[in-house]
Amino acid sequence: LAKTTQPISMDSYEGQEVNITCSHNNIATNDYITWYQQFPSQGPRFIIQGYKTKVTNEVASLFIPADRKSSTLSLPRVSLSDTAVYYCLVGEYSNYQLIWGAGTKLIIKP
Amino acid sequence: EAGVTQSPTHLIKTRGQQVTLRCSPISGHTSVYWYQQALGLGLQFLLWYDEGEERNRGNFPPRFSGRQFPNYSSELNVNALELEDSALYLCASSRKNRGFILPGANVLTFGAGSRLTVL
User: Fold this and answer.
1) Among A6, A58, A62, B91, which one has the highest count of C-beta atoms within 10 angstroms of its own C-beta?
2) pLDDT band of A10, cuts 50, 70, 90
3) Using CB atoms, which residue from B56, B102, B115 is nearest to A93?
4) Which residue of B has its CA nearest to A104?
5) Architecture category of domain A9-109 in CATH
6) Domain range list for chain A
């Protein structure tokens, strides 16, 4: 069973690039990695998803090394509105489990 | 396209009472997931339904139950409420990928949640 581990909290400043890393040591070959963003009193919102190497969309990039034991969410040029909790999720294909990280609280300062 | 809708948005109950929470998934989504999120904490998986059947269940006591209807909407029932049941209950839905359930690859769309307070 995969276990996901991510930092509890991070601070950064407006305009900086922020990288949040999630460890998932027991990830299997067919498991996907997804990141979600959650604001207070709202449901999480999909940010980006990947399987291997690098994925980029209009809001973020996701880097997955060859061994896939970790993944890094990269947020370019953050703003105050990026203050939120970020969750990584590993979808275990073998047993249909969704393994959520505990979340990283990101605080962006002016 | 309408998002995932949950009702009620807020409710207050007392210990020992029962509560029913409702969720309407996005049109075309066949899977519904229920999560519990206590204040300031992460997501705790409760239940997963797909096409009317319970596919998986989290580590919660039997007083947490639910069902999924033929139109794919879902209910979560909690009996004999306890103080520690106070939380945000989140529903999410997903569609299959080319007819298949691919855990994690099927993106979850969450509702805004139902905030339950047990006094």
Assistant:
1) B91
2) very high
3) B102
4) B42
5) Sandwich (2.60)
6) 9-109
Q: What is the CATH number of the domain that holds B24?
A: 2.60.40.10
**What tokens does A13 get?**
């400043």
Looking at CA atoms only, how far is residue B75 from chain A in angstroms? 17
Mean pLDDT over A10-35 rounds to 92
Q: Which amino acid is it at B19?
A: V
Task: Show residues of chain B in contact with A96, CB under 8 Å.
Answer: 48, 55-56, 101, 103
CB contact under 8 A, A43 and B105: no
Residue-level pLDDT at B98: 64
Please indicate if any CB of chain B lies within 8 Å of the CB of A103.
yes
Host domain of residue B47: 5-118
Q: In this predicted structure, what is the pLDDT of residue A30? A: 78
Asked if residue B99 has pLDDT above 70, the reply is no
pLDDT value at residue B16: 98
Q: Is A45 on the interface with B (CB under 8 A)?
A: yes
